Amino acid sequence: MEKGRVLIIDDEEQLRSLLKRIIILEGFTVFEAGNLNSGLRLLDKEQVDVILCDVKLPDGSGVDFVKEIKPKFPLVEIILLTAYGNIHDGVQAMKNGAFDYIMKGDDNDKVIPLLYKAIEKVQLQKRIEQLEQQVGKRYGFENILGESLAIKEAISLAKKVAPTGATVLLLGETGTGKEIFAQAIHNGSKRSGKPFIALNCSAFSKDLLESEIFGHKTGAFTGATKDKRGLIEEANNGSLFLDEIGEMHSDLQTKLLRVLENHEFIKVGDTKTTKVDVRIIAATNLDLHKEIQEGKFREDLFYRLNGFTIQLPSLRERKEDIPLLANNFLKIYAEKTNKRITAMSKEFTHRLQQQEWKGNIRELKNVIERAVILADGLELRIEHLPLELQRNTYDTSSTFDLANIERSHIQKVLHYTRGNKTKTAELLGIGLTTLYRKMEEYKITV
């Protein structure tokens, strides 16, 4: 499997051939050119990830070549090689966008490790670019669905703050779409062409979260075998979305405050600061005022984050939007499962609007996905809903009707899972023991 594509530009044929052999043995595809003009022609014809370029060439300077190439090929990394290194050239090369600047001969053993680091950066940049393109298509303001006054007010506020670059704090229950709003704010800003990185602060321990956000140096802790860029550095010039920020440890809150105030941070195990230009968009479902009173959240950080706050409405506060959202999820999952389901019955829709939806949009999405899986016809009906939603639709004194519905529903799910009882219990939202008991009660066999 090809590890990457490398272009060597050097007028010394012997050195060029030696480097080519070494790099090919590492699994890379290699192109070569004897001067800058030949190298430029190759770049126009071939996809290249990393360029190894001599500083002094017959038709120009490698240092100037970096400045010319980076705007045209921003994802290509350039490592400069020189036989006569000087500090001025090295500094200028890095300013122009070179990945590194090393001496020929003395630094030959650094070429392959540097090449791997450069390829790693290129691959990361490409992944980020792909994600940005996907996010740009999926998460603009026009794709936030809803006609209710509550959601329109939230969208209006988000549109106003998006181009300003201000720090934003999104408040709302779990499942209300905070990350989608954060992405839309990013895409509506001047940073839209730059990285958008999202991180759930509640998903990591304190030490792991610190390393994820701020990065670390080799040897900073057991297992830190190489330097790691943190997400805040990967999001440089873009936006970093910190979900569930109320769960962040107080020590990390202090480090984040420094980023907001001075645009700098210190990596784990490092002694010097790293400058960064990043927009912070934070979110939480906690009452931060209460967290401050209990000493769990820094008041000064709260005021830095609270420059512009948007409260996202729960789904029960915008029930008129439920049919619109449900129909959207129906289209998505019908396409994914290759089913020709095009509608929801009135009873089905009515039942959706009766629910409290403690899990908000996320819960509604899961319910529609499961209904689509179970449906055989052209529309979603009441029997395709989870049992707890069905029960409230019927007269609970009619035990016979309810038992029939429950029995039929369990049989459908068992048929869908091909008799896998563990998966069936999971889809039904009940314990495996409960499933076995109900199968015995209704005399269901598979």
Architecture overview:
By secondary structure, the chain is α/β, with parallel strands linked by helices. The chain has three domains: 5-128, Rossmann fold; 143-311, P-loop containing nucleotide triphosphate hydrolases (Rossmann fold, 3-Layer(aba) Sandwich); 316-441, Orthogonal Bundle (Helicase, Ruva Protein, domain 3). Helices cover 48% and strands 15% of the residues. The protein has 19 helices and 18 strands. Strands 2-1-3-6-7 form a five-stranded parallel β-sheet, with helices on both faces. It has a five-stranded parallel β-sheet with strand order 9-12-15-8-16. The protein has a two-stranded antiparallel sheet with strand order 4-5. The longest helix is centred in the N-terminal third of the chain and has 28 residues, at 111-138. The model is unreliable at 393-400 (pLDDT under 50).
Search tags:
446 residues, alpha/beta, Rossmann fold, Helicase, Ruva Protein, domain 3, 3 domains, 18 strands
